[in-house]
Amino acid sequence: DNTKIYVIGDRKSDVKCGLNANGYGILVPFGNRPEESEKVNKLKSKNKYIAKDFLDACSFIIKKEK
User: Fold this and answer.
1) For the chain, what is the largest distance between any 2 Cα atoms, rounded to a whole number of angstroms?
2) What angle do CA 33, 56, 20 make, to 5 degrees?
3) What is the DSSP-derived secondary structure letter of residue 17?
4) pTM reported for the whole predicted model
């Protein structure tokens, strides 16, 4: 009950994995795949996050855990 799930990845499928596990899906866009951000934006979930970089993704998790 106290476990939270965070999945960080560079594709929509990674974000969906986190969402399907009733957790958070965090996208860290990769330079040669800008379409992944557009795909993730279309997902209807409040538990998705598009990070600027890996450090931003980690900061998002830390904020959620406080």
Assistant:
1) 38
2) 65
3) H
4) 0.90
